Amino acid sequence: MWQGSSRREAPARAGAAALAALIVLAGCGTLSIPQERKLGEDANRQIRQQVKLLRDRVVHDYVANVGAELVVAAGPQPFEYEFYVVEDDQINAFALPAGFIYVHTETILKARNVSELAGVVGHEVGHVARRHIAQNYKRQRNTGILHQVAVISAGVAGGSAAAGAVNLLGGVAGVAYLNTFGREAEADADAFAVEVLPRAGYDPRGLVSFFDTLAREGGAGGPSFLSSHPAPKDRIQATSARIAAAHLPPNLEVSDGGRLEIIQQRIRLLVGESGSGSKR
Ligand SMILES: [Zn+2]
Question: What pLDDT is attached to residue 150?
């Protein structure tokens, strides 16, 4: 899906607001909380039109509930999180700026227990909570690439420069661009998940066992939970070491008494067999 997104034409209207936004962005090192929120809301509006959301309340609520537990466990946050389920047969999950988190149905189907799903969701929450997207924006702006795109798109699209970049690149590709994290950010998001999962009652070893699935299944190209710089093998070692060093409380939840399996069965019924079909 990352390669194939259609390029959406931006409306050709320049505006003083765009120029002002660009000056603001150029003048500071990173995205402020309000800027990231605006960028996230714009990106979220576009992404929702470009992915196929699984519009099923039961499945949505299940994922959103796991996400909400992790957010609560993470402590006070500058953003309100929203969770969405995308009907897609690639194992993937991604975070938009300001806490809009998307989980593919294939990720839910491939999770062997709820702690694995919590590991993936926790990792994505980590990118938002640790402000990786803002840092990423800064890093990529410094390379000049995003900055150039932002300059061009701010001229034609109006709105904030960064949102213009998302728009110009085509929503999904633009978000993918902002969502390409470096090795450090990926390790940091993994560390965040290891720290927060136990506080929400989930066993962080789920993250490690899901890495096994990633290594076994291969999967989507493009920026994602899956294709981040550290190879799954490296991430398994680093995350295992981190878990071994942590003092885990007893009785952490690995499975949730068959609830995940019911959700998986529901997804299969909703999307048909293709949803759980063969990997390419
Ligand atoms: Zn990541």
Answer: 45
The set of residues, in sequence order, having a beta carbon less than 8 Å from that of 197 and lying 6+ positions away, is: 70, 73, 115, 118, 119, 122, 203, 204, 206, 207, 252
Residue whose structure tokens are 């981190």? 242
Ligand 1 ion: Cβ-proximal residues, 5 Å cutoff? 186, 189, 228
pTM of the model as a whole: 0.78
Alpha carbon of 124 to ligand 1 centroid (Å): 6
In angstroms, rounded to a whole number, what is the distance separating the alpha carbons of residues 170 and 182? 22
Tokens of 227: 């294709």
Please measure the distance between the N-terminal and C-terminal CA atoms of the chain and give it in whole angstroms: 13
Q: For residue 101, give the DSSP letter.
A: E
Question: How many whole angstroms from 185 Cα to the centroid of ligand 1?
Answer: 7
Q: How confident is the model at residue 238 (pLDDT cuts 50, 70, 90)?
A: very high
